[in-house]
Each structure stands twice: as structure tokens, then as C-alpha cells.
Amino acid sequence: MSVSANALGGIAVAAFALPALGFALGPVFDRGEARWEDVGAVGDFPETTYVPRVITLVPGIGEAGKSTIYVRKHNPSIDGPPKDRYDDFVAISTRCAHLGCPVRYIEASTRFVCPCHGGVYDFQGKVTGGPPVRPLDRFYTRVRGGRVEIGPRYSVNSHLRRFSPRDPGQALDGIGQYAYPGRFSTPSAPPGAQGAG
Amino acid sequence: MNLKLRRPNTANGRVSARHAAGTAGKEAGISVVDWVDERTSLSGSLRWMMFRKVPKGTNWFYTFGSATMFAFLSQAVTGVFLAMYYDPSPTRAYESARHLTNDVFLGEFVRGMHKWGATAMMVLIFLHMARTYFFGAYKYPRELNWVIGVVLLVLTMMMSLTGYLLPFDQRSYWATIVAVNLNGSAPILGPFLADFLRAGPEFSATTLSRFYSIHMLLVPGAIAALIGAHLYLVAKLGTTAPPWLKAEAPADLRRQEIG
């Protein structure tokens, strides 16, 4: 009697505790879907400077889901040959790699500058000063019918090697790439993309 | 058989009608309390809790703990009433907070109490903690109560973090982005912890409702339960004398020492 009553109690507790735990943890394992957003015609974006665009990172939550990005055409003299077909345009995320504040591009110094703790990035988004631990994130880009489309975000290390999107504050050089593994929740890289570990 | 005790003013027979009515009301009240007490024995527990012996030298520094608890009660009550108007959706949160502040009767006052009360609670916690530390009140046998207190401190900080997002203005949005990214910078598990806090890879509608639920249901429940345990141990173990008070030897012993 007492054994079966305790067992039944245990089962009853598990019956509400386990689903609740799953409820709380579920989003960690829920793979997000890739979205592609039109940001303008191919001719809108020069090779030598950035054009700001506002894209929707998370739909359905109004202004909070939007983010500014900086877009330019791939410049072989600076960037080398394109890595793949998602590299014809360079789209830089304005999320600072230190703690996620919004950076802005300063035309006069060809630098990205973060207002919060003084992170500075060069024209390619590589760190040139301040606390950020890796370059600015980028977005996959593609051209459809003469229009530039922005896809999922990815992170890069100091050699601009691609990684699946990390949160700010997570280094990707040396031991950093093992200390901060990729997550289950981020959208997969588009088919045929080169090396996004 | 009448077992009731005679009261002095009824014994001499000079009782006005008004006084008699008052006495009857009082006796009705007493018999209700008696009825409950006979079935619960609550008076014993209350006496145990409320009429404890406290050491000589107990002073105003000993009131910081109660003050912290009253700050928590104030937060709980104002929070319940703020929840009547607040809407935890990303497109409505800011507007509902603006509405309850500017349009609702006394809304600005209740929101102000909750906002400044949060700061007051943190200050009081640290004063209470400092008193406990400098008076050595964390030592045997009170270590467990110190541990519970530290858990309460961490839970209160969780309240500060989750509550900060709820007004959903620029400051609270970016502060939360930064706070989640700080969690994400812990090695190995950090990225998954950040996903757990945000409920996904990006800040989304679920993030706000998740913070709201943690802020008003999960953590306050835990805090209330642990305050209960904290108070039980205070009553069970008693409080300490201030460190500047020397222990006094019993009178007869002292007489022997003196000679």
C-alpha cells in the first residue's frame, strides 16, 4: 500500500513536472527556419562603402524584431575571391561582438564604432580596438531576379572563417571555437554554403 | 455551569448599557478566536514566534531583516496590482505600461513604489547582510540561515534582471540583450543558457512572456517559501547579542571570583 502510494505519487509528480520542464527547455532544441529578405536592387550597393538597410530578424513582434544591417558589393581587391554563391554582397550585422549593442558605420574613418564600450571594427568588420572578441557577424546574401536578398546570419573568426551564428561575447579564435559550440536553435546554413562549423 | 471568568467591571454591577454592548462584542470576538485556537493551537505557535527572548543589547540594526521583508511585501502587493494593467506582449507592453502610468488613477504612484521599492529592497538586503556579517551572526549554529539568505539574495537579483525588461523601452530592451549575452559568454553551456533565457536564438515574443512569468510567478513563490524557512530558523535558533557585549557570569559565580 505505502510503496504503491508513493510510486503513484511519483508518477503524478512526473506527469506535470516533466512536460513543464520540456516546455521551458523546448525552444533550446527547436531549429529556426531560414528567412530571405529583399533589400534592394543589385545596383543600389557600391563596392567601396556601406548602405544601411533595416531587416526583420524576428517577425511578428514589431520594432523589437528589426535590426539595421550594412550592405555593400563584394570587393575582390579587399575581400579576395567570393567564397561561394552567397558571398557576392557583404552584409554586416550591427550587433557588436562584445555584448550586442548596435554599432554604426562611420564613413569618414571607414570604421564601425560601438557606443557602449568603445568597440571599433575596420571596413571588413574585423576588430581594431576595444573589447569585442571577434569580428562583426555577417549574413548570407543571394541575388534573385536582380534583387539582393539577405538570409541567415553567420559568425566569423579573425580570419573571416565562417561559423554558425554565435551570440556576442563568444570568441571563435583558438580555444574559443570549442568553448562556445554552435546551438541547435539557429537556422541551418543555406545549401552549398562553404564551411560554417 | 458558567466557566467564564468574571471581569472587574461586571462584578460591581455598575455597568452602563453601552459598556455592556461593548463587552458582549469583545466576548464574541474572544470566543471566535478561542474556537479557532481550540482547533488549530495556533496561539502557541504565534507566541513562540512573536514573544521570543532576545539578547541584551538588541538594537535598531536588528530591524533590517524585517525591513527587507516589508520591502518584499510591498513589491508583492504593488506587483499584483500592476499585473492587472500590464500586457506582456512585445507590441503592447510599452503602451500598457505608459497607460497604467499616465492614465490609471494612482498608477504612477503604484509603479513608482514598485520601481523604487526594488532598489530599496536591494539596499536593505545588503544592510541586513552587513549587520549579520559584522555582528558575526552567521556563525554556528546559524550557517544554514546565512546560506538561505544568500539564495534569497540571488533570487532577488533574478527579480531585478527579469523585472528590468518589462517596461520594454529602449533601455530595458538593450539591457536585457546585454544581460543575456553575458550569460552566453560562459564556456560550453553558456550558448544554451542564453537560448533558454531567450526561448530561442533571437529575442522574440516568448522572451518577454518568459521573463514576465519568471518575474511574477516562479521567483516570488521561491522567495516567499525561503523567507518562511529563514524566519523559522531565526525563531528556532534565536538572535545573537551584539559583539561589543561581554557574556555575564551568573551572580553567585561572580561573587566567588571577586572573593
Task: Please explain how this structure is put together.
The complex is a heterodimer of chains A (197) and B (259). By secondary structure, chain A is an alpha+beta fold. Chain A is built from three helices and eleven strands. In chain A, strands 1, 2, 3, 4, 9, 10 and 11 form a seven-stranded antiparallel β-sheet that branches. Chain A has a four-stranded antiparallel β-sheet with strand order 5-6-7-8, with no helix packed on it. Chain A is elongated. Chain B is mainly α. Chain B contains eleven helices and no strands. Chain B has helices at residues 8-11, 17-40, 42-50, 64-83, 93-102, 107-134, 143-165, 170-184, 190-198, 205-237, 251-258. The interface between A and B is medium-sized, with 32 and 29 residues.
How far apart are the first and last residues' alpha carbons of chain A, in Å?
55 Å
Mean pLDDT of chain A: 93
The helix content of chain A is: 10-25%
Backbone shape of chain A: elongated
The parts of chain B where pLDDT drops under 50 for at least 5 residues are none
Tell me the quaternary state: heterodimer
Number of E-state strands of chain A: 11
Span between termini of chain B: 61 Å
Structure summary, number of beta strands of chain B: 0
Radius of gyration of chain A: 21 Å
DSSP strand (E) fraction of chain A?
A: 25-35%
Q: Work out the helix count of chain A.
A: 3
Taking the sheet with the most strands of chain B, its summary is: none
Keywords for this structure?
heterodimer, A: 197 residues, alpha+beta, four-stranded antiparallel beta sheet, 3 helices, 11 strands, elongated, B: 259 residues
Summarize the structure.
The complex is a heterodimer of chains A (197) and B (259). With 197 residues, chain A is of the alpha+beta class.
